[in-house]
Structure formats: C-alpha cells, structure tokens
Amino acid sequence: SRKVDSRTIYVGHRPCPTTEALIPPKFCDNRIVSSKYTVWNFLPKNLFEQFRRIANFYFLIIFLVQVIVDTPTSPVTSGLPLFFVITVTAIKQGYEDWLRHKADNEVNKYLVTVLEDGRRARKESEKIKVGDVVEVVEDETFPCDLILLQSSREDETCFVTTASLDGESNHKTHYTVPDTEKNLESLSATIECEQPQPDLYKFVTVFSRCVVFFRSLGPENLLLKGATLKNTQKIYGVAVYSGMETKMALNYQGKSQKRSAVEKSINAFLLVYLCILVSKALVCTTLKYVWQSRPGQDEPWYNQKTQKEKDTNLYLKMFTDFLSFMVLFNFIIPVSMYVTVEMQKFLGSFFISWDKDFFDPEIQEGALVNTSDLNEELGQVEYVFTDKTGTLTQNNMEFIECCIDGFQYKYADSGTELDGFCVTDGPVSMLQQKAGREKEELFLRALCLCHTVQVKEATGQGDGVGDGMIHPADLRGFIASSPDEVALVKGAMKYGFKFLGMESKNMRVMNRNNDVETYELLHVLNFDPVRRRMSVIVRTKSGDTMLFCKGADSSIFPRVRQEEVDRIRMHVERNATEGYRTLCVAYKLLSSEEYDQADTGLREAKLALQDREEKLMAVYNQVETGMSLIGATAVEDRLQEEAAETMEALQGAGMKVWVLTGDKMETAKSTCYACRLFQRSTELLELTVRTLHSWAKSKPVSAFSVPPRSWSSANQDYGFIIDGATLSLVLNSSPDSNSSCYKSLFLQICQNCTTVLCCRMAPLQKAQIVKMVKNSKGSPITLSIGDGANDVSMILEAHVGIGIKGREGRQAVRNSDYAIPKLKHLKKLLLGHGHLYYVRIAHLVQYFFYKNLCFILPQFLYQFFCGYSQQPLYDAAYLTMYNICFTSMPILANSLLEQHICMEVLMDNAALYRDVAKNAMLRWGPFLYWTLLGVYQGLLFFFGVRFLFSNPALQDNGQVFGNWSYGTIVFTVLVFTVTLKLAMDTRHWTWINHFVIWGSLAFYMFFSFFWGGIICLTVKCAWLYKSFIYTTGQKF
Amino acid sequence: MKEELETANRPDNTAFTQQRLPAWQPMLSAGIVIPGFVLIGLAFIGIGVALFIASQNITVLEKDYTGVEITSDCYKCSNPSDKNCTCKLDFSLSNLFEGPVFFYYGLSNYFQSQRSYGVSKDDYQLSGDLDYFKTPISACSPYQYDANQNPIVPCGSLANSMFNDTFKLYQIVNGTKKLVPFDGKGIAWWTDYNIKYRNPSVTPLKNAFNGTVKPPFWSKPAYELDTSDPSNNGFVNQDFLVWMRRAALPDFRKLYRRITEGDYASGLPAGNYSLEIGYNYPVLSFGGRKKVVFSNVSWMGGKNQFLGIAYLVVGSLCVVMSTVMLIVYAKFKFPEDD
C-alpha cells in the first residue's frame, strides 16, 4: 500500500517500461479560484450570508411578523429599509466578486507552452496537468510549481525572482536535476514527492529514472508558481503541484470579511436590547391578561370584540399579542442604525483617501481605502506587525564606508566619484592616516572576488574593457542573491576596482590602473545562515591560491588572529550601532597542500548522497580557519522616511511592534536598531537556530531551559528575536503535553517584550504569528503592514491589513484594507484618523441606542394606560421618521466631523491613543451610562406629560387634548432633548453641525405644523393642511 | 503636462476634505457654567412662579354623579335597565365663579385609548365619502353591519359608544329655576370641524343615509343630532367631534359646553344651582365613574399645578447646583491661581 503523504509523478506522462501497470494518479487541475460565488449560487449564498448577520435576521423576523400578524404598524415600515439594505449590499458584493472572477480568468486563461509527444503546444494555463513538461521563457511567471529539467544556460541553472512570493526581489539561482538526459522527449522518469504543503523553503523529493538512477532533489530544483524567470532565455520543467495545490495558493488565504471590534460590541449591545425588547413584550402580554381577568375589563360594552376574536384560541391570542408588542417596540433596534453606521463608515473613509498628507508626489497617489468597515479599528490597534524589506527599509542598499586594517575610509560623495580613493586626495580619514596601499588593494580585490554576483549582459553597448573607458555604474546590471553583495561590488567600484564578470571559470577585475586582472574561481563556499559567512577560493595569475572570506563579525572574529580583531572591532561595533549592516573581510593564502586537501574534501562532500550539508559544513569550517582580517564594510539599507519617528510614535501610543521578515537575522536586527525599535539599553533575547545549536552543544537539555538568570527590574526593555525554523519548532511541535505550554510560554515572553523580531519567516508563518497573537488572551487588535506578496497572508490574517504602495507589485495593496504610499503615513492613519473614527463611531453607537431607548420607553409605559392594547403612543409617521429624518442627520454629521481633540494635537501626543485603547468607549460602563440616561429621560418624558395631562384642557379656549396630542407632546420633547443632548456632546461646531442640528429641529417643527395641524391659523394653511391630510392618511 | 497629471490625482486641498473646516470649540469653564446655571435657574423659577400663580387663580368645581351612593339623587338612575331617567345635582356657589366658565363631563376607568377601540371607525366614511356608507371598512367590526347586513353609519365602536348624557343647568333664583344658557359652539377642534369630518354633499342630509342604519347604541340617527342647526348636524356635530377625539388616559374629561352668554358671560354668580341630568350612559358595568366639572381657564389652560411646580423644582436645582459648583470652584481653583 502506498503511503498517502507522497505523490508519484510521471514526467511527460510516460511510465517506466519496468513498472507493470500505470494507474494515472488524479491531481487537481491548474485552476486558481479566488471568487466566492457563481451565477447560480449567488442569490441563495449571498442572502444566507447576509441573514447570518444578527441584525438582518432580526429585521427579517420583525418583517415577517408584521406581514402575518395583525400589528399596530404596517409591514412597509420595516420591510422597505430592510429590502434597501439587503439589495445595496448584494449589489456591492456581487460587483466585488465579478472583479475576482475577472482576475482569476486572467491567470487561468494565460497561454503557456507545453511539450506534448515531442510537439510544442500552446495551452491555457488552467489546462496544465501534473506531469506536463512546460516551457517558460524569460520574464514569464511560472504557471505552476515546476521541477527544473533543462535550462538554456550553459551551467544548468536559471535565475528566478520571487518578489511576488516572499518579497525578496533579488535573483535566486535554481539548478536542473543533475545528470539528466538532454532529450526531454525520451526522458521517462518518475518523481516521488511529498503532498503539497505551504512551506516555501521546504521540499524533499526523489527523482528516479526508472530504477537505475536516483537523485534527491531539494528546494533549489523547484520553481514556484508566481515566481518570475530572469536572465535565462528559457527553461523546461515538469509540473509537480498545480492549481490550488501550488505553494503560492496554499500560502494564499481567502479574503474573508473582517468585522471590527466595534461591530462585536454593537452585537453585544444588540443582544441586551433584544432582551429588553423581549422582556418588555413579555411584561405587557402578561399584564394584559392579568388586567383583563378583572371583571368588566376584558370586554366593556363600548368595545365589543368581533366574532373572530372571540373564537380565537386563548394561547394563540397570547402569542400574537406578544408578537404585536414585539413589533410595537421593535423601533428600539432600528434598521436605520445599521444604515447610519454603514454610511458613516463609507463616507468617513473618504476623508482618508482625500487626505493630502497621504499624497505621495513620487507615485502620484494618495491613500486607498479598500474596506471602509474598519475605520474605527485603526484607533484600537495594540499590535503592529510590520514587514521589514520595503516597509521599514527602502530595500535599497548603499555602501557607506569601510575600514581597512583599522583605518576608516568614508566615501566622500563628491563629483569625482571613481577616483576618490587615491591616496593623495583620498577619503576623509578619522585619524588622517591610511593603511598601506597594499592592504587597500587587497581589501578591494577581496570585495571584487568574494561574492556570487553576476553581471547582467550589457545590451547593445560594447563591453569597453580594453579601451579604458569607464562605464557609469548603472549601465551595468548586477544580479545577486542579496542586495548587500551588489552594494559591496558597487562600493569597490567607487574606489576604482571594478568587477567585470565571469569568463568561463575566470573572474575578471579591472584595477585602479585600468588593468584587467583575471582570477580562476576554484570554489565557492556558499553563504548559509548558520555559518553566516561565505568564501571563495581563487587562483591568481601568478599561481597563488587564495581564500577570501566575508561574513558577520561574530563568525569571522574567532577565525582570525586576535591582534587584528581589536583594531577593527571598534569600527564594526560603531557601524552596527548606527544601523548599518556590517561585514568583515578576511583572506588566507593557501599552500598547495592545503588547497589539495580542501579541494578533495569539497568534491567528496558535494557528491555525497547522504548528509551532504553536514559534510560540506565540516569542510568549510576546516578551510576557513587561520585567516587574516583585512577590514570591514558598512552598508546601509536606507530606512523609509521617518521610519524611526513613526515607530517611536506607535510605541508611544502603547502599541507593540513586531517585525516579521523573511530576511536574515543580522540585517533585520540592524534595521530594528536603526528604527529605534531596539534601543541601546534594550536587552536582546535571542532564540534562533544558532543559539539552539550552541545551547545544545553546551548542555544537552531542552532548548527552552534558558540558563537561570536574574531578570532586571521593570524598567529594562527587552527585545526578542526568533527565526522561522525555531518558530516552527514552537508552533508545530509534536503534540505532546509540552507543546501548548511552549506556545503559551513563547507568547508570554513576547508580550512582555517591547519589540519582537521574527526573521526568516515564510509568508504563512507570518500569518501564524498574527493568528497566535490575535487569538491570545484578551484578543488584542492586530495590524499588519507590508508591501510584498509575502505579506499578503499576514495582511489578510490581521484585524487590519495595511498595504504599502511600494515597488514590489500590487498584491499587498490589493489584499489590504487600507493602502498608503509610505510608512510614515501610518502615524496619521492610526493616531489621527483611527482615533477620531473610533471616538466618532463609539459615540454614534451609544447615542443611537440611547435615543431609541428613550424613544420607545414612553411607548412601553403608555401600554399601562391603554389597557395593554398595543396602542402606539406616537403617530405612524413619527414612528418611521424619527430615526430617518428627525434625529439622523445631526448624529451622522457629528460622527463624520467631530474632532473632540484636533488632529494635530492627537498626532503630537501619541499617548492620547491609550485613552481609547481596549475599546474604552464601548465597554459596559459607558453603555450602562447611556442606557440609564435613556431610561431616565424616557421616564421623565412620559410621566411629565402624564402629570400635565391630569387636566388635558391645555389651551386657553378650554378644548381638551387627545391621545395623539399626548404622543406629539412627548415626541416633541423627545426630539428636542436628544438633539440638544447631541449638541452638548459636540465639541467641534462647524457650519455643517449648526446647519443639521438646528435644521433638523426646524424641519421637525415645520413637518409637525402641517401634520398635526396644531397651530394652523390661516385659511391658506388649511387648504395645504387638507391636501396633506388626504395624501398621508388621516390620523389626527 | 506633468502638473496637469499632478492635479488630477492630488486630493483637493479644501477645508472640508482636509477636515479643517473652521469650527467653534466650546470650552465649558467655570466662568460660563456657573453664571449660566444661575441664569437658567432664575428663568425657570420665574416661569414656575407665573405658572403656579396662574394655576392657583383658576377655580374648579368637580361633582361626581354616577349615583353609587344611595344619598345621591342619581342613584335611582344607575340601574342600566332604566331608560330616560333624569336626576339632578344641586350645588351652591359662595362666590362669583369667574367666566368664561367651561363645563366638562368626565369619565374614569374608561379606555378610549385602546387600540381596537380607536381604530374602529372609518375615516373615509366620516369625511363624507358615500362609497363607504354602503361598505364601511372592516375595522368597524362588530359595528360594521347590523344583523340584517345593513351598513351602520357612522360605523365602529368609537362612534357607537358616543356619550349621550344631557345636562341642563339652572340657577335657583328666589325658588324659581333660571336656565343658564350653554354655548355648544367652538368646543371641538378647528381641524376636526373644518377639515377632517365632512357631511356628504347631499341635501337633505337624510337622503345620504338611505339604506344605512344608525349605530345600535344611538337613540337617533346621525342626521338628527342637531336638527336645528345644519352646521352642527351629522358628522360635524360638535358633541360627536369631541367624542371622536380620543382621550389619552383612562380618566379623562371632555368639553361639553361653554357658559358665555347673557347674564352669565362674566361668570356664575354666587347662589344655588341645580344641574338636571339626562342619565343615559352606563358606566358601572366596567367600574367607571361619571362627573361634571366647572372650570375657568387662564392663558395656560385649565388648572394644573404640576407644570409650575416642575419649573420651580428644576429652577431651584439649577441654583443649588451653581452654588455647589461655586463652592467647589472657590475651594479648589482659586489657590492654584496664586
């Protein structure tokens, strides 16, 4: 029986001759589906989803009751607004899904070339099947996950950029399956690989050519869907994962609708009000039947029942009475609140996109709002998860300075760019001293040789090596696995040493005298994050074999002579504290015996089928010893504008900043220092593969038993650093009893640190972290900010996702809730807009509940005076128009324009953000205050008028007022009180506020004047009144 | 060209879009709040005093005539089987009852505010639409059609239960009864009389009611409510209009007549009076009471202590609050200024 956790793929669908029967395995097709609906299921599915909202469902029930039961108000009063809300939402969601369909089609219908029985066939991307051999040309993206079989490059490699996957814009080298046949048509082979899983950096596969030939493959052979082929004319690959099973699709999480914490509060309040509503209805129903049981009350002679009423079953009557009361009091939870909240959010979001402070002249764009539902959530953020590359930094490396043999060389940024390194008019030295010319040149040669940079073939232009002409740096493109390397090569170029490229196995370097030197490249000892250094072994023309090594100070210093270290350490540490990325450069002259030994060791290790990595590592370590230190470099990854200020403001506002990056730890750490996320005084706690290794060596105990140490007092800031591999140990550890304990322990440590840095993260791990924090105790509000496709998963996972309109495509922007051009805009977005929107919507919600409570409470109390007969206190027009016309505009205007503290003050005092943290204005305390206020005022309105009506002759002509007048008086007092209450809460009176507040009251008076006809005096007016009465019904 | 592009994408730099509209930001300082409270308090006290005095000056005379007590003259009429019973209510005034005097009848424990009762009428019928004379709306049930399927006009419980006690007031002058003239005009709402209720434009009015029957409780059809005055007959009969305007509370009074004419224009002089009551309206079956009320009015309407007291209480509270605030302010604020 076959194990389920692996799949077998037949290259080109050709089975091995030896295997007896081929059962073609079934894999999913290569279609990407991100849309939610189809034409057929749109209506039922959308309606179902809409009515899952507690409010919509409630209004539907009320509407149905009104249709079925004889109720005091018409079904139109609740049916029409509900229909309106549902329709508008459905149209909006339908349109959004149509856009998704379009985007999907674009990807799925893209034409690709597939090799079929020796012919090249054009096919739509969605028709690719697992096992197909696919051709991809330069600058095309891979249509599915492929295993590289053949490349047009001689060295059996191809270059790939995964910018849209993990955000790393550099070129990565991938290798073909070693020693395969050149003829793909006759190649029959099987690939045994694991079932699809989302980890981008993990891939284990066995490639077998029909039993006789096995090769194990790793991630370096796998081309991921979504990555782009670069600098390689074309490649052939075999599809291994397709469609929704590709690593990209598995890393992509569906965009589910986000609900803000405020909406959760609204739902909680809604439940309270539902309880109030139901209990009101229950009380009235009970009292009705108690009251009727008294003699003479049930059916007085003046109010006889109809035959039908007499025949109805008592319990049925009770039930319909209950429902009628529900309908009568249902205005306590008005549809209009949802409409107003939606309008506030929708209109309010315009202020974000209109804000000219968010406008970036460089890209000619301002902020973009994709989801207006989350405006207020911006004011509630507790955790900020930020990407590093492109978000905190500009992803633009620049060589700043170097240090040779203890002397500092700072490149003077003058007009004389290329010969600025001459001894005579050389760069400013701190001590006005120079290292020897020999050392300088050795250092620069090392920079030119010790790297894996490739020169992109200049297009059109002659190479111009021999003519002594100097090309500007930007004419020559460099391709490298890390932008630091390019920066170093470019840095060396500034000082006169120019890397010209590879010619077969020779590296060519042009020195300061414009002579071309050639070096034979013997070995590259690749960079890896554990060793944290890389080396090359080259042979000079004169026959010397040299090893150049560059790497992190911590990994170089132990391998060089100590007296050299002290001179350079000072510089390195100073550079590191300035936030530069530092590398140390060392070299070693290899004797021929030493070289031979190393050479054989490396060759053997490379051919090893088992433990290849470990064997290579051992040889590397053996070779890279006893070197001499030449110098150190400092490269700056420019921070985004005002990155440090922004981060400081966020921390000042009480937010915790976590940096989640796919980048290396050193780089990320230096960025954190530069952004002032780590301070000088911050004590760093490191939990990485490296520390695990060292701990494991020192004592073989659990990695988590940190050596006992004294934790300093509360004032100490802690920073926590963890890498992806370690994190997966923590998160996905075997399901033993300790694993959940680790997770909570980890979370606890992280939550007590001011800053957490997670490096080497896969996109999904970023999302995992966000999810973990999101679901932790107290469910804090999280915000993710990023610019690349690798940030999409965390942008989608967090409560609020912010996209930066950066260089790395638009995926982050498309999936974000808000997109801003620059990181610095985050400050105003959160501290300014977020704070204001939160205060606005919190007030809006509380005020709405309050005004409807004191609206409906008198109607409830009136039941005690009308024999519990569901007699509405207010006229039907008042009932419907109260929330729509009379009291809606002032609160809407207030919730759009209110600035209880003006924007500048909010931004200058980040600590003000803490005032509204943790949903402060929508907790039960404020809710209770508003509810009690509503109850108090409702009681006052009703009983005030009740005592006034102890003598209903309230006019000087002795005429008496009836029940509608009673309601109208209560209603008038109500409208004025709630409007004036709002006026008293308004701290920012613009002309619009004046207009809507006084205008609403004036409109109410004007309306009542005609509707009630209370104060009609002239004949002309009587005619108007008459027509009005006839058209609107005849209540009065 | 480039600048054009810039203006196309750049957000408008207006005060509104940038949320920089000029705004008044009220600051509630002690210097405003304390004098403000004092002023509001004083104004309220002023209004309260005026209302209270106005209310104190109103004279009210209330007499129950349900006839529950045996001593009451109306006791004999309280048996519902007794038709066309008259009883009288004697009272004397020691002072002049200043005019104009308004005469009300009052009912208690009577729920005119019940919904089923209130909706049991046909507005179209009452606005004179003849179609609804033949087929009244079903809300009028059980007073929609009579047993012979004749439509009832005016239909519904509300109209059917119209108050039908009659009153005549005599002053006893030297042992002889002198009729105090009642004015039945202007007791109904102007809008009811002029707009909402209309007789069908058929003359004589009686013809419009062909094929219909009167409400079962009524002793005479609608077109005979006041045969002497066509402008007070049918649906625009003022007694009918007063009844049709429903009371808000179960204990209510309705205006019956005004005493504005002849010797009594300036009020009811001191002396003995006798009120002759045509006792028709049954209330004891549901535990109700009937009363008559004589009252004069002021600019604020009938006697009502509540409003004046409420104003006085709120006004005094404001003043008290302002003193408290002043004390707090003096105690905690002034030293800091030094």
Can you offer a commentary on this structure?
The complex is a heterodimer of chains A (1036) and B (338). With 1036 residues, chain A is α+β, with helices and mostly antiparallel strands. Helices cover 42% and strands 18% of the residues of chain A. Chain A folds into 4 domains: 6-30 and 128-251, Calcium-transporting ATPase, cytoplasmic transduction domain A; 261-293 and 327-350 and 837-1030, no CATH class; 368-392 and 644-695 and 717-820, HAD superfamily/HAD-like (Rossmann fold, 3-Layer(aba) Sandwich); 396-412 and 437-456 and 476-637, 3-Layer(aba) Sandwich (Calcium-transporting ATPase, cytoplasmic domain N), CATH 3.40.1110.10. Chain A has a 9-stranded mixed beta sheet with strand order 14-33-32-31-15-27-30-29-28, with helices on both faces. Chain A is elongated and about 125 Å long. Chain A starts with 5 loop residues before the first strand and ends with a helix. Chain B has a 4-stranded antiparallel beta sheet. Chain B is of the alpha+beta class and 338 residues long. Chain B has helices at 2-9, 30-56, 115-118, 123-126, 131-134, 157-160, 190-196, 205-208, 238-244, 305-332, 334-337, and strands at residues 60-64, 85-93, 97-98, 101-108, 166-173, 176-179, 252-259, 267-268, 271-279, 289-295. Chain B is built from 11 helices and 10 strands.
